[in-house]
Amino acid sequence: MRRRTMPGRRTAAALATALSFVAASAVSAAPALAGPPAGLPSTAGAVTPDRPTDDAGGSSAAGKSKLTDTLRARLGTGKSGDFWIRFEQTADLERATTITDWAERGRYVYDELTAAAKRSQADVVAELRSAGADHETYWINNSVLVTDGDLELATRLAAEPEVASVHERVAVEPIEPVEQHPAGEAGTASVEWGVEAINAPAAWDLGHTGEGITVATVDSGADLEHPALAPHYRGAAEDGTVNHDYNWFDASGSCGGDPCDNAGHGTHVMGTMVGDDGGDNQIGVAPGAEWIAANGCHSCSDADLLASGQWMLAPTRADGSQPNPALRPHVVNNSWGSQLPGDINDFFADEIAAWEAAGIFGVWAAGNAGEAGCQSTSSPGANAATYSVGATTSEGEIAGFSSRGPGEDGMIQPNIAAPGQEVRSSVPGGGYEVASGTSMAAPHVTGAVAVLWSAVPSLIGDIPVTRDLLDASAVDHADDECGGTPENNNVYGEGDLDVLALVEAAGEEESGDIAGTVTGTDGEPVDGATVTVGERSTATDASGAFRILLPVGTYDVEVEAFGFVGGVVEGVEVSDGGTAAADIALERAPMTTMTGTVTDGSGHGWPLGAKVRIAEAPADFSAWSDPFTGEYTLDVPANSTHTVIADPTAEGYATSREPVEVSAGPVVHDVAARVTAACVAPGYGFGGADIPVEEFESGELPEGWSVEDLAGTGEVWTFDDDFGYGNMTGGEGLFAEVNSDAYGPDGHQDTTLTTAPLDFSGLSAPTLAFDQAFDTLGEFADVDLSIDGGETWETVLHQTAPAQGRAFVDLSAAGGESDALVRFHLGDAFWGLWWQIDDVGFGECLPVAGGLVSGHVTDLNTEDGVVGATVADTEFPDDGVPTADPANTHVQPGYYSLFAPAGERTISVKGDGYVSDESPVQVTADTITRHDVELAAPRLSVTPDQVSDDMVLGGTGSGRFTVTNEGTASAEVEAYPGTSDFEILSSGASGGTIKGVEREATEVAAAPVPSSGKPGTAHRTAAADATPSDPAAERYAPHGRAGKAVTPAPTPSLLAGEGTTITHSSSQEIAPGNSVACTGAATQVLRTFTLEDFGIGGEFAVTNVSFGVEIADPGTEVTVNLYTLDGELLYENMELLGSATTELEDADLTLVDVPVAGTAPAGSTLVVEVAVPDGPVFFVGSNAEPETAPTYLASEACGNPEPAEVADLGFPDMHAVMNVTGGTSVDVPWLDVQPPVFSLEPGESATVHVGMDSSRVDQPGTYESAVVVDGSTPYRAPRATVTMSVDPPKNWGKIAGTVTGQPCEGDPAPLEGAFVKLDGSAYDVTLVTGPDGGYARWMGVSNNKLTLLSSADGYPPEMKSNVRIIKGRTVVHDFTLTEFCG
């Protein structure tokens, strides 16, 4: 039973979710019904809702409301980031389950999904292209991923009516094994214990091993060469050749063409599904099945996983072309998801629904968070639509790590349990390893479904029945730990998997295969041929091969392929367990030529560019019409009827589909493309209807309208917002609604709202436009049309999926009618949700007087097309269009097409880096005026592009290069250092350096501690008892007892050694019991970094902050804020530069790395704040080792809302470990460029002098900087690389060495990520070893003597005292650290 609450009592976030992550039915969505573009001539009677029109504010508010709070916060700091755009419209896939033909069913789902995505994404994609924003479109869930976009762009796009929501990236990870070790410890069994435990061999004995079924993984990849997998790859031919078309998808681009697995996870999973080497390694449940794979979890990014999901539904050739849904797999294993226990989201819900509609059975790992207790399973495995698998041990009991339910909406999860602990399977390289996890359990179920469908082919694609059979045949396993019943609970689900019982429950069918190859008479394979046997069909792969599983019997095999004469192989006998051959060679069909024109068919009649193709043909049977003439030519088979599809590239035109009879000779087929109901095609606007817009502002039934109560319950359309839900349509004020939610659990609504009679006598193609908010729990929302006074009705819009925003409905059937009626019908509502409508208007899409200006914009210097320039009529600059690089072969890059009023117009062309052009153009109505433009621009070159000099540390050098303007316009040139790099002299060591201050740290004044009298605390430790006289100290408290300090593992940003890392911490160790916090209350830990103290003379662009954690509750949210400080350390003196929030998991006694962006200006003081909210336990990591500037704490609950020094609070030994990493590339202190700014006319040159000053660096070595010569041109700015080679002074020497780790087991090896502190008499520095375990640093003998301290995570430290720097020599001090083994 569902539990429901009124929206008034729902949280705002919950209500927003209900409306933001939904998709609309297949209705065109566009801006509010209105006239033509601003400023252009309008048609009479435009229907526009009479509401306030503050476009900027309105669109901004609408956009902001669709952004998630998290994304708004991430982009609100001024930095750019990635975000997803989700669209309202969804494809109606309901009919797919009624299609029995496998190929036809897949094609139907693919066509519906791609069509819906194309329609709804068009406006947003056009805007992204115009903005030059990087993006990728996805059709499986109707979304667009924007990379590196800013808040302004996200808000603007969100305001588009087609957009449902804009949200941040989704974090997904592989469900990694909880443990994994070489198989030698487990031994080899002929049939692995998990396969035996689920009774798979007993099903094999009946002759069912998965033959004819294709399984797949979305995982880290698969090792094609593994002997247990290679024979089962679908792309492997009997002659030993391998074809990856339709069989392998490299989502991450990491494998170089062939299947690979760089992590091993996917290979292990695939082995459990199908693995069998023909010998002693029977590791797979369905060894007779074939496999294909996508490595979406090589990265496990949300984008790669979505791309993999698309590919599974419509596999493509290896180059990404010619998607063919007929070759989709039957079963797909998914061992990935959110790793936050209990995290439920619907990001992949559309993908899951699409797979199910196409007949693909998805299997999901439940997750390995069982130790978190009940409700620890996470999405997607926790979602109601998925079939998820828990893991059991060899003793048949649930594994401790196996995630428990309940899942989404309290549903029982997992659905079933299977072996998942100590599972032996394949790993890359031909070997075997034992692993534990629900990732190991899920493929047992995937293989079981393959065995079931091979045994009973009539079940293929029947997802509900297959789920029911899995549930019914599972062996009950009672467990009341997390709720449920003995038969179905949140630990084991329906029980333990049993393959034999599964097959027996379904009832066996005697079956076999028909396999063959389709070729032409020339012997070349025919790709994509349709092979039909009775009611089943499949498609040939790239090698022309096919295989189809059938019940025993005699069949005729029919083969059809575009461009060939069809053929039949008659009387093919299928025996039980056998494979019958059916090879066929098809003759080429005679060809002829189809020609024609594609033009506008809604009034203007101008030519259109369009892709013209034959529906029945492969993708390469297509042609483009010339956008300047509309002409196209296409070779087609003669003596056939073809469905010709014309898809105009101009926005706002409907795709045309027409049957064309083709005789033996050439045929002419002209296409007149119609504009869509949304009326967004160039040169069109709404108008023509003298019917007022109904806004429902009276709060009563509009005059002449009527309501009918078909259910007889009195629960009908209302108009006064009596239930208080507010207007959710996007309109304003009152509205009409049927609120099923408000009527409660005993309600039933079936009611219509009918308009007054409508006079469409002056309209040929009327359109209905209205705002709506429809949410559903099974009810439908229809729009019906009558042209006979209500005697009969035609449904013109049927909605069963949620929809919100502006909708347009084509009423062409009522064109010319004077007494039409439209009604809004909500039915099948039994305590459902709601349908609201507002601003109901009627009109027609009519041509606006004017013509098209089209042409190419090219670069005067290179003659290349200019993409991304803006072309506009100077009278209407906001209505400009971008130049593009269309796929149409008749045009080149730089193509544009602009609508403008007829007459003499001035057309402007503006491109970044180019001199703008304005030209007069005579525009002719209803035609295309050709207007090509060449843009001038400066173009700079540098000679030579390498400058170098050598010197001793402290010396200077110089060089020069020449800059020439080779372009066609003048340039204002700026020369500046753009990058900087350094390699230490004579060192093979790699790793990071944590830089301390180069002078005494700048003192920063802080607020006094609010206290009646400060205690004397000069020698107290943080763990000591606080003096009662200090109110703040009385509240701050340590956590636990003091313990021995440990060395944490370095963070990735420290280990990479990229950028500059600065710190005030002389030690990276974390001491237990050393830190204090305002326990349970919001606490802020702060440090200040004055840039010049660290030798940073320019800006400092922060990329990462790492800080120590002594202890933290799992799930604690920590926010890192970056500020610049002006004055005393008070919040009113801080200006926010950037912010980022992270969630801590298992962070005790570790260093945590938080990516955060913000740029501190040159000469400024940077403040870094680590802030924790009320509630969770969090103690920052600290030690009592010296620090070069104070640690500060602030907590309003503990009496000091402003930052105070920890020493003043009574805790002088609490020195927080905190490091800041960033780039200083804009400031290269050793390099001087003169002149930095100058002008160049075309053909002129200038000399740039560079000065090198090695006194501005602290280490001998090679320093390199690329001097950028920027002339604001459209080209990449040329660079001159300046190299300064610095030798050490005679009184300098080098300290170097290698840190080796001796593990508890195994041989010693270089230790990456060890800290080496060089503590000298004058200054000190901390180094981080690289992969080779090496470290190196040059120093002057004035820093003698040194103490060296090396430490690493899990290894006790080692110290070397009295180390001397010897001038001119390298002193080597190696460390061998022994792992702490307990």
From TrEMBL:
Keywords: Carboxypeptidase, Hydrolase, Protease, Serine protease, Signal. InterPro entries: CarboxyPept-like_regulatory (IPR008969), Peptidase_S8/S53_dom (IPR000209), Peptidase_S8/S53_dom_sf (IPR036852), Peptidase_S8_Ser-AS (IPR023828), Peptidase_S8_subtilisin-like (IPR050131), Peptidase_S8_subtilisin-rel (IPR015500). It holds the Pfam family CarboxypepD_reg. Residues 1-34 form the signal peptide. Residues 41-65, 1004-1059 are annotated as: Disordered. The active site is at D219, H265, S439. GO terms for biological process: proteolysis. Residues 1021-1031 have a biased composition (Low complexity). GO terms for molecular function: carboxypeptidase activity; serine-type endopeptidase activity. It comes from the Bacteria. This is Carboxypeptidase family protein. It comes from Myceligenerans xiligouense.
